[in-house]
């Protein structure tokens, strides 16, 4: 950079080029200026002067105007054109003043007239012009520096401007984004001042609690709270700790209804003492309802909506501790519906369900509000009576009264669809507190008493006695033992003869017995219900069929063949309802080589009318192979004539209960007469069951019943005795024939 060279030149000795054709002048200038610290180079004419100017780049040029070859004006033109910042002083004689003027026009910085009387004039001119040159240089440098600075600043400003523009744009975008987030929030964002005045609230407040945002702005957030204490609590907490998290509160919705909301809020204090509260809330009404429903379902029976076992035990715990504390007595009533299973099995589950709902309704109507009625199993209801007296006697009387009322209400007929149903309850009652028993024990006592009521012949009310528990335990033991009965060969099939109108054995019914090693011979009425409850009836039923078929095959070959042409066995509803039951029977027949025409199956009325189509199909497949079907206990169930006509039946067995009274009760006699006539009309055989007396037999005989079974002829007998009984009767017949 020329400027910088020149500036640096100032700190070194300045170089002065003196161009003059007069040697004396050159030398005088040289000597004089060197004394003042300048370096002087000399040129004797303009040509040499230009060359030296080019080679040495002097800081100042002193040039004579009149010189041979190349004069001072040419030197001046060269210097001005190539280095306009180099000061050039023309030194001229007084006679060439016009040249001096021209030189100044061409760019000379100064002039001096020769002869110089005082060389200090020279020194002054040199210093002055060098200073000027330096100032010009400095000024230019300063200008240049200024321009650089301005350019730099301009650039910086430009960049700053662009940055601001960009920030503005980002701000706008972020504001837009914030707006759209704010407007599409599912939760409700709110901002209120410390008094609760709403400064901002998101539009989602409408979808959440049906308030218009605009209508809320400026109003108090606190006015939305349903519970003043919850609102106070939240404000106090915000004051104390500055935050509340997931606070559940009820808020009024736009229609004045209550909605459950979860609120999270923060209080922010400003330095000036003010502040704001901001936060979000969410409508959790549906979640709360779902939770309440789940909670309800966990504690209630889904069919009747009554409390379930869990809730009952909770309430019982509460009643127990209250009664222990205050000395009140309470009672627990366990209610089981007699013959409910028959109704359910025969008329279908939907009728069964409706019946249970009706029972629930009737129970609720009988009781006080503070009593609890619960359903704890299929047809098992429990009533909890708390605080019913301060002494056991009074409590027992109250409980008995309630039980009787329940018994009465439940035994009134129930009409469901086309059916008029009659049910009776077996009720077990236990009082509490007896000792320090817990709810589980109280329930168990009630259960035991209820089983006792059932055992007492159903439709009974029975109080718990301590000794009962042992009996209940025995029943449990029986269940355990029954599982092993087949494997341990404890099941036996007894046979009871069936007699024809000539008094001859014409068949038999196989009846199950259980030879228990501890309890002796157990009758089927005691263990068949247990087998049905536990599902053991299926393997047991199969065993009965298999065993009966084995005997049929055996007897079909010997002397008993004619007398025992038909052996019937009982079939449980559970067995019969298995889809492959006919196949199972066929397999057993094949396995044992039994003639199907010798086998009879006894079904209860319930089985027959439950799912008539399926029953008819199964019966038809039995009929096709010759197996006979009889309806057992006929007259006790819900059979109707129309069903009977549709089904391929063979035999009706009149229930023992009718036969029992047939000679003393006219209505029973009429029923038996009707059944016999009806069977005759339908082309069905009839057998009377439970014939015990000569009178009964005569009545039946005279009414047209041609087959009988009962103690009058023989009890059910073990196989050996039964075979002897039949052989004897054959022998007797033969001897009668002979005589
Ligand atoms: N008081 C009296 N009773 C008489 C007289 N004649 C017969 N009985 C009894 O009446 C019942 C007739 O059998 P059910 O009605 O099929 O009633 C049977 C039947 O429903 C069921 N059962 C018996 N064996 C089986 C079986 O192998 N499978 C199934 N599923 N149930 C069976 O147990 C019930 C009771 O059987 P059991 O105790 O053997 O009782 C038998 C029999 O001993 C009489 O003159 N007077």
TrEMBL record:
InterPro entries: Biofilm_reg_signaling, CheY-like_superfamily, EAL_dom, EAL_sf, GGDEF_dom, Nucleotide_cyclase, PAS, PAS-assoc_C. Residues 174-229 form the PAS domain. Residues 475-730 form the EAL domain. Keywords: c-di-GMP, Phosphoprotein. Residues 15-129 form the Response regulatory domain. Residues 328-466 form the GGDEF domain. Residues 245-296 form the PAC domain. GO terms for molecular function: cyclic-guanylate-specific phosphodiesterase activity. It catalyses: 3',3'-c-di-GMP + H2O = 5'-phosphoguanylyl(3'->5')guanosine + H(+). One of its GO terms (biological process) is cellular response to nitric oxide. Pfam families: EAL (PF00563), GGDEF (PF00990), PAS_4 (PF08448), Response_reg (PF00072). It is an enzyme of class 3 (hydrolase). Its EC number is 3.1.4.52. It comes from the Bacteria. This is cyclic-guanylate-specific phosphodiesterase.
